[in-house]
Amino acid sequence: MKKRATFYAVKQKILFFTLHASVFSFTSYLVQNLCKYKKSITFVENYFQYETLVYLYIHSYQLVILC
Fold it and tell me: Among 9, 25, 50, 66, which residue has the least CB neighbours within 10 Å?
């Protein structure tokens, strides 16, 4: 029983880190593409894109914890 519980815990941690990394890379990819396709990006827009990335990252972290 203990071996099964350990396997389940390891499986959950791997799933957690994989999902965590994939969500972060996806949001950063989206922000990079938004930056790429705009001709002129002002400081304010850069700031808001950074804030959005941080918000999505924290929000995805909370979602993973809730799951």
Answer: 66
Distance of CA 31 to the CA centre of its chain: 12
10-45: per-residue pLDDT in tens? 777 777 777 666 777 777 777 677 666 554 455 545
The whole-angstrom separation of Cα 53 and Cα 59 is 10
- Measured at the CA of 22, the angle between CA 61 and CA 47, to 5 degrees, comes to 65
Structure pTM?
0.36
Q: Judge contact between 57 and 19, C-beta under 8 A.
A: no
What are the sequence ranges of the domains in the chain? 2-66
